[in-house]
Amino acid sequence: MSEQNHPINTYSQNELLLQAEVDALKKQLDVLEQKVFAFESILRSELSNELVEVQELTVLYKKQKLAKKEKRIAQKQRGKNYTPPTSLKPLPKATKVHVSEVDEKERKRLYREAMLYVHPDKFNMNEGQADLATEVTTKLIHIYQTGDLIALKDYHAHIFSGNTLVNIAEHSGVKVDQRSKGEFLKKEKERLEKIIDEVKGKYTYKVLTEYPEPMKFLDELKLYYKDRISKLRRRTRVG
């Protein structure tokens, strides 16, 4: 009997060790995220105006660039001797609805919150989400310009629901056997280790751990955004 039970006992012991490692990793991750996210939140708060303007100018620049490209294509299709009319039709603008002063304040609040939420992670030099952020920002600006508060509230809610990922294995309510539970713990351990490595790979984590005065990084960012905004303003200047 004891020989038959031995593998199960051994497996249970391994499972307990894995669970302890997972619990320790969760605590480590919580501490890291609280520290890093709190720092990034301060940076975003101090740079809110710059972040919003960069997003708006980036969207405008892409629109102007696309319009120029379409104009060149149209000219080629009509021939080299094609001369554009002296009076160009203005680009269609979003139809704006009337809003009260109270609604206007609420619109601005929702707009800025959403804009800061989707801003690419410049602090960590991560450009992977830049295109997606610009796409979302383009739609956000369009809705904001229409003055439609209800549509803006809906899109604001849609944006902020983007990270509600749920671990199905934890909440499915399905009873698992010892083997599958052990495998789950192994995968959970690997997942947590990967996230911890990602957090430690953030530039803001490097600032927090290597800068004698981490808030000095804010001065670097202000210079970066000042230069970025200046260049974008020149690129989007009309006439």
Automatic annotation (TrEMBL):
Residue segments, region Disordered: 71-91
Q: Which domain of life is it from?
A: Bacteria
What is the protein's name according to its record? J domain-containing protein
Please name the source species.
Roseivirga seohaensis
